[in-house]
Amino acid sequence: MTDFNADPDYEECLVTFFDVLGFRNLLHTRSGAEIREMLSTFRQVSEGDAEAPRRSDEMRMSSQVHAEIVSDAIVRTRTTETQYHAGPLVWELIDLLHIQIDCLNSGILVRGAMTIGHMHLGIGFDGPEPSKQGRGCALAG
Hints:
Blueprint: E1 11-20, H1 23-29, H2 32-47, H3 56-61, E2 66-70, E3 73-79, H4 87-105, E4 110-119, E5 139-140
Antiparallel strand pairs: 1-3, 1-4, 2-3, 4-5
Helix pairs in contact: 2-4
């Protein structure tokens, strides 16, 4: 069992998950074009527009968002190990407020959850090296 607190490949991250409320019902009541437009709006407001950091010291000054999108579900990750420890939580809450307002203005209801845990993001949010534990991001319980 790995001690994620002592493992330098893992860092504390804020993880937010949300999706479109009632999406299955929308599939039966809306046209394909309406759903495509709704998902486009949902994705656009959820991804964030900050440029990804290129160096680890840039990542530590601020907390960039990385969003993984699958259909109507979005997982956002943001490192909390920055110069201002409370900053990432504050910025994520502000982002989520804007996402909810933009979605409501487009008639999209969302639901979600937020947690903090240890993850391996990598500088470019590309997860562990191929030789370590497979590909992708891993959240430690």
